[in-house]
Design goal:
about 300 residues; alpha/beta; TIM Barrel; five-stranded parallel beta sheet; 9 helices
Length: about 300
């Protein structure tokens, strides 16, 4: 059991350096999705977001790195104007100086790995494993052996790739084999794996609970109103708790759902063993560019409000 005090809980925000998770095509109502060959980043908003996080009591910044860094091991995947590794480390120091803990995220879901460029079409091959291992090793080194490493792993389904030109969905032993490999590389470098478990948890719960190591931190997510403990996507929080998993539940402010993170914190505090809740994560699901300034800064404020209200 984790004897984690209220003061020690994680209050984290996911901030996008890279937003290249989806294949390039037209998303109805979501034109900001799809691959872009250039870095999409307002440095002014990036800095203001970090400052706002510090003021709101956020203590963890999960950085979606993707192809926005020119890695020394695989510079070929970098977008134009990607950060150098020196620039990344300078930003990590800034985050730490603000009193927050930077955590890396590389999404290895086959539905969200457009950032891997040609390697996204080599899933489950020796070349793929080598590239993944190289990137995890380098990122762990850049972050100084971070406490957690977010592997994503969400939404790997036919439904979520229905408009892709090239679909990849791993199933059963193939998915688990790749997952164990990635988790092993994270643990080899002294970090703890963090994932969004929806793909297996929501669709194959028996398989999930049979095969998922309890060392892996689960960030189940639901962005609507919490109406009942038996509600689909909500009851999974309780099932994870009952089965002994540590959790960092995820809320979001990506549309007119300002209630999401507050509802998530309220529900989990009322229904789960608080010692199994390592903390909470707020997401925005928008690239860090000026047109999303109000959305991102308000999402940060909403996390701060949830922290003050329920803890």
């Amino acid at each position: 059991m984790n004897n984690q005090s209220k003061q020690e809980k994680i209050w984290g925000c996911l901030l996008h350096l890279s937003f290249n998770m989806w294949e390039e095509y037209v998303w109805p109502g979501r034109p900001f999705r799809g691959f872009r060959p250039d870095l999409r980043l307002s440095e002014s908003l990036w800095n203001d977001a970090l400052e706002t996080m510090a003021k709101e009591g956020v203590n963890m910044v999960i950085i979606d790195l993707g192809d926005a860094v020119r890695y020394e091991s695989h510079p070929e995947i970098a977008v134009h104007n990607a950060w150098s590794t020196d620039r990344l480390q300078s930003e990590l120091k800034k985050i730490r100086d603000l009193g927050m803990e930077p955590i890396p995220k590389l999404n290895f879901s086959a539905g969200h790995d457009t950032w891997l460029k040609e390697y996204s079409r080599m899933v489950s091959t020796d070349e793929y494993y080598k590239v993944c291992a190289d990137l995890i090793l380098e990122v762990c080194h850049l972050f100084g052996n971070p406490r957690y490493f977010h592997l994503g792993m969400d939404e790997e389904s036919v439904e979520n790739q229905s408009s892709y030109k090239y679909m990849v969905v791993r199933r059963n032993d193939t998915w688990w084999g790749d997952f164990y490999f990635l988790t092993g590389e994270v643990e080899k470098n002294g970090s703890r794996t963090l994932i969004w478990p929806d793909y297996m948890l929501w669709n194959q719960p028996a398989q999930f609970f049979k095969n998922m190591p309890r060392s892996v931190v689960q960030s189940n997510w639901y962005y609507g109103m919490f109406k009942s403990p038996d509600q689909k996507y909500v009851k999974e929080y309780i099932e994870l708790n009952t089965n002994g998993y540590d959790q960092i539940p995820t809320g979001s402010y990506h549309e007119n759902n300002s209630y999401s993170i507050g509802e998530t914190v309220r529900f989990c505090k009322e229904h789960l063993d608080d010692t199994r809740i390592l903390g909470y994560m707020q997401t925005f699901w928008k690239p860090t560019i000026e047109e999303n300034r109000e959305r991102i800064l308000e999402g940060i404020r909403l996390l701060g409000e949830a922290k003050r209200t329920y803890y």
